[in-house]
Structures are given as C-alpha cells and as structure tokens.
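Consider a protein example.
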Amino acid sequence: MSQELDYLSRGVAAGRLSRREFLGRATALGVSATFANSLLARAARAQEPVRGGIIKGGVEGGGATQSLDPATFVTLPGIFGKCWGEYLMALMPDGRLENRLAEEVGSSDDVKIWTFKIRQDVEFHNGKTVTAEDVVATMERHSKEQSKSAALGIMRNIESLKADGRDVVITLKEPDAELPFLMTDYHLVIQPNGGKDNPAEGISAGPYKVTVNEPGVRHGGERFANFWQADKMGFADQVEIIVINDATARISALQSGQVHMINKVEPKVVDFVKRVPNLKVEAVSGPGHYVFIIHCDTAPFDNKHLRMALKLAMDRQEMVDKILRGYGTVGNDFPINASYPLFADDIEQRTFDPDQAKHYYGKSGHSGPVLLRTAHSSFPGAVDAAQLYQQSCAKAGITLEIKREPDDGYSEEVWNKKPFCTSFWSGRAIQSQMYSTAYLSTAPWNETRFSNEKFDKLLTEARAELDEDKRKNLYREMAIIVRDEGGTILPMFNQFIDAISDKVGGYSGGRGELMDGGYAFARCWLTA
C-alpha cells in the first residue's frame, strides 16, 4: 500500500493527479487525512530539483551496430537521444503538447500549411545557434527515401519546406489536423544542418553533451552549460547508460547500487523488487503493446486464412494473467487502446477459439510446423509467452515451433527481417502517427509488410478530417481492417515497469511509455 500511496503522491506533485483525487484514493485505502497530507508534503519536497552527481541507468535494448543517427533510433539509442537531442515539440506526461524549439505553432484554416516559429538564442552543443534553416534541413533529411529514417512514414505527406526568418513553413500534400503531434517523434532530433553533414555525431541542443558512445556497451553525457531550459532538465552533472540486456543482471545492478534506474522489469519479479529496501517500482499504463508479428507477403503467411488461424489460436486473457500478471490489458490485434484520443471501444473483442482456428487452418491448406522466433529482449516474458502460445496453438491442431534467438542483436538481426517473431511497441502520440509508422504500406517500419489500399486511403482522409466524430469513425474502420486483414497478433497492452532507487527524484511516469516517456535521464536528479 505504501508504494501505491507514494506513487499517487508523486502524481500530485507532477500534476498528473489532483489533490482531491489523491485524498479520495488515500481514504479508500484506509489512510488518515493527516498522514495523507504528510505524504503530499514529502512528495512536494522530493520534486524540488537537486543539482550534481552522476545518474546511472541499466537499460535493455542496446546493440553493437546501433548508431547515434536519430533516423535509425530504436529503444536504447532513443532514450539516450532524449538526453542530448532537442525537438520542435514534446509530449507531456498528461498527453498535452509542449513547445520545445517551436515557440509558437499555427496553421491555415484547412490545416494544410503549418508554421512553427523557432526560439531565439538556443545553442547547439557545437556553439552554433539553432535556426529555422537547421529545422528545415532536419525535416528534409528525414523526408528522403535514402535516409532510411524510421520517421519517413509520417513525413511523406510533406510537399514543401521553407525557412522564412524564424519561421519554418511546412506545406502538406493533404491536410493534417494533427501534424504538431507528429513532430514529437523521437527520431526527429533537430541537428546542425539537419544532420546532413554527420548525422551520427550526436550534436543537438539537449541538456547533455555526448561524451561516451560505445554501442552495445554504454553511453554517456555531461551537462551542457548553455542548455536553454536549465531549470527544467539536465540537473545531474553527468548521465551514464549501461547496456544490460539480461533482465536478471539489470535487477542485480540496481540492487547493488551500480545503477539508479532500470527498464523492462518482468512482471513475475515485481513483488520481489518491491520488497527490496530503497527501491521503487514504477508501473504505468499507456499505449505500449507486445506483439507477435507476421510478414503478410512471405509464404506461408501470405495466406490470410493461416493468419486468421494464428490469431484465433491466441489465448489473450491467459497472456495477460500469466505473463503480465495484471500489469496490462487484453489486446485486439490492432495497436490502439483507450490511452489514445478517439479510441473506438465498440469493436468486438477477439477471443481464443480453437475450433475456429482449426477451421481456418484447414482452409489455409498449410501443413507442418509454423516457426516463431523470440528472445527475452523482445519484451519482458516473451519466451514464456511463446510457450503459452505454443500450448494454445496445439489445442487448435497447429504445431508451433519456437526458436529462441540471442538477446544481443535481436532488434538488428530478427525484428523486421524474419517472417514471424515477437516484438514490442511503446506506442505513439496519436493514432495517425502509430499507423503511419508501422501500418502504412510505404512505412519503413511496416514490420508486418501490411499493404492495403483502402487502409492507406482512410489514413489520408483521417489526417485531413477536422470533425473529431468523423475522424473517430475513420480510425475505427482502419482498426477493423488491421485486425482482420493484417499480420499483427496483439494479445496485450503492457504497463511499462521501471525500477528506480529512492535516491532518484523527478520521475513522472510519462504517458505510460518507456522510461518516463524516454526522458528519465534528462529530467530526473539525485536527491542524495
């Protein structure tokens, strides 16, 4: 109960929860008003930033081939990128937009032309002043096919870019009412000349300057003395992120004091971690989800009946109960849940149906085993989840073979390359961004090789629709197409579970995303 109250009180201090809501929850837990108020006072004190020290983290998701080029960011480089990188816009813990380098944002009435006014006197780590030209160059680089940027899917709607004094003017091919949300994409780090000269140099305008870059081993930075918003981020003298891909080793490193924060705590060990003195578990709900991904263009998975059989052979509730242990909710084979605005909650929930799975398996004409690749690093509990899936498939007469891959290199060698494997997503700010990143037929991270002309057309229409009710209906139709035609088997939306030392202050929980929305090292401080 004390951990829950501590979490709630920090929520009040961070602005995620009102004082009245906290006192109501505390009363329901049998806590006196006097004690509850003392917790609020302590939480408020803990929210006062302290400068100095080295914040160290043990993070899963590092690999030897990873780069500091933001176009190629995946899990760990993306988290480190929010230490040294700066963006036009950012997503706040409560889901609101925050202006970063964009001081003002406006659009034409038809939301086809957007103007972002760039702040004055913001400095890059190399001493150069951030200009509208740098922003334009950044957007140009991520819009080019040859950049292989993971943000390309959300940039393809851009028709032209220009700098006009301090203004960046973006003209779109089709109207997009939600373009500022797309600018929060973690790949769109603003770099000198857009990173066209040396994108992997690690230079931007964030709170830390890159001092260590050893891919697959560790990354580090020192406080940037001229950071434009020093009262909000960059409180530690240094940050150090150690690559620890093994879940048990991460917990050991946190217990021993080697690091102050770790990510991807497995639900099965949460109760153990909660009992460790001086450690706190931070579990937050949001758009994150665990998936079994199928390449729709690769035999035998190019057969829609086989894909449907595999979807119906998944026992989602068992996954939530045994893998997440209550730290999440059931999924429905499309990547959107109630954490997104305009979520349609009336789509029929897909359930485990071995008889129907057997029926579709027979219609597919496929015989013999189906190979699934997995690794612990693909998501916490992935290997156990694969074994549960193997058992439920067997009830439908489907033989599922499991190949356990090495944790190191999984994101480079297996994900987005092999036709059937496990993976995870932290989600995105809005539905159109999630769909543009991973489901649009031309998206570079279209991990299921899903291509549907009607879906692509609906996505274009949804971006341009100013009426929210109509946009919600378009999103609903898109979700059903992905659910029934796509290659995503999505059994569960996870909570992101981090564990941190009680010496760390400033952790807000993010919008239910990985490591405080990726900003844990940039925003937090050491209290002692």
About this structure: DSSP finds 19 helices and 21 strands in the chain. The two ends are 25 Å apart (CA to CA).
